[in-house]
Design goal:
159 residues, alpha+beta, OB fold (Dihydrolipoamide Acetyltransferase, E2P), 3 helices
Length: 159
């Protein structure tokens, strides 16, 4: 169901910005900001939101924070799972009951999510907060971090 909602969100965003100055056709990025509220925190780098895409029109979407990689909740090692739980708790506290904004929105092409940076109500970036707390690493396409290592190492993931 979330995949369909994300697809609808993407189509609605495309319709809103088609031919307008806000869409970057070369990169398929909608700069935003799109006002939203978090409905649910999945983990440290994925949230479900209700996004206001047009006056009187809101949609649900699953958003992957584009700029970071957090440890997985189902990691095989205790240390990574502990950091994953901390990251999820930080995100829950940061977005609970406050307005957020989605910026630099683009399709992920996997898992039925969209990629976006999330600005908190004070204008700060959620990904930057997790990076500063040591609960995330910068994310670049195909680069995965090994959170089980004493010092997390990041390497290119083979497909």
């Amino acid at each position: 169901m979330i995949g369909i909602r994300s697809a609808i969100f993407g189509c609605a965003l495309a319709a809103v910005t088609a031919g307008g100055p806000f869409a970057s056709q070369a990169e398929d990025i909608l700069p935003g900001p799109i006002p939203a509220t978090a409905e649910r925190v999945i983990d440290g780098d994925t949230i479900e939101v209700v996004a206001a895409i047009w006056p009187g029109l809101a949609t649900h979407a699953r958003v992957r924070l584009a700029s970071i990689d957090t440890p997985e909740l189902n990691s095989p090692c205790d240390g990574a799972r502990a950091k994953a739980l901390q990251a999820r708790e930080v995100v829950e506290n940061a977005v609970a009951g406050v307005a957020i904004r989605l910026v630099h929105i683009r399709p992920e092409h996997a898992y039925g999510r969209i990629l976006a940076d999330v600005q908190l109500s004070d204008g700060s970036d959620l990904g930057d907060l997790l990076l500063k707390l040591g609960l995330a690493k910068p994310y670049k396409a195909r680069v995965r971090c090994d959170w089980c290592a004493a010092a997390p190492r990041c390497s290119i993931a083979l497909k």
